[in-house]
Protein: Alpha/beta hydrolase fold-3 domain-containing protein
Amino acid sequence: MTASIQPTSYWLIWSLLVGLCPVVISNSQLLKSPNTGEKELTKEAYLATLDPEIKKAYEHVEFDSPEQIDKAFADILALQNKKSWNETYTRIKSKIVTKTKKKINESVTLNIYSQKSSKSRPGLYWIHPGGFFFGDTDYEDFMMQRIAEELDFVVVSVNYRLWPAKYPEIFEDCYAGLRYVWDNAEKLSINKSQLAIGGASAGGGLAACCALRARDEKNDKEDKNPIEINFQWLIQPMLDDRTNLPSTVKLGLSPGWPSEANRLAWKHYLGGNYSKEHHPYAVAFRAEDLKGLPKTFIGVGSAEIFRDENIIFAQRLLDANVVVELNVYPGVTHGVDNYRIDNPFDKVAEEVREVNLNALKRAFRQ
Structure:
């Protein structure tokens, strides 16, 4: 990675650039109240919650203060248009999967991954992570190729506008890509009855919002060709702008994605304010009605700030009669499952990937 970034911010930076346990919680109580008097864990207490492999990587790292996180965001924005950091990601090309790019409008380009076959098969529409600020589809090449090769999916990954774009521009880009996939499913060799939508971190939140809009447009019956999503694949999704649940307080300085970074990202995305009248598909967690959504997989780390909002969202989906699989990765923080060459927790990362891939594999089994 080529950049003048302080060592104390390094772990935050690489985690941001990727962008991805049984816990008993009173869901209704948490939905109605901000943090319930929880205190932020000390570094020592936080490290004790981690998988040993992850703990070993983090125990000699200084965790970032809110002030350092502010500076880290400035450093990230300086990197936003530089591609040198892509070189730190594994570059393995599949021998049986082809990758093509399709520009569908001035702001949206799709990466399409598929095996050379005309047979109709499952499709995955994927939205990359990055906190609405950074990232692109290319550094996830290997994962997209892996899904296309091992699961024989047609994978379509969207490059959407980033900061300084906000809601609704970012969301509209993602939905435009989904609409293209649906309208061109036959040409892409995608079986419309086996279309999944997925995303990691901010991409997971955007995917959940796309699913909400697709459901609403189908219910309105005005769309002559309504999009029908059959499965949501949400990897450590960023769902709630309020950042006020117990895990966001106790785990607030977790180096994968700290609470302060989350607040800044949401502030920029929403323009500082939220109202459901003006932002109906901006924040998935604020949706009041989750009925009629497709069956869903949610994966989240027990040691990341998104833990509680993901668990509560899964419970709300269950209450709405949606079929849900929730996996809380024990001792895992945010964004461990990337394919960096220097990933210091590669064993845990592969275990997390296998859990996620198996859920996607099961989604459309006959």
Q: What stands out?
A: The chain has 13 helices and eight strands. The CA atoms of residues 318 and 324 lie 6 Å apart.
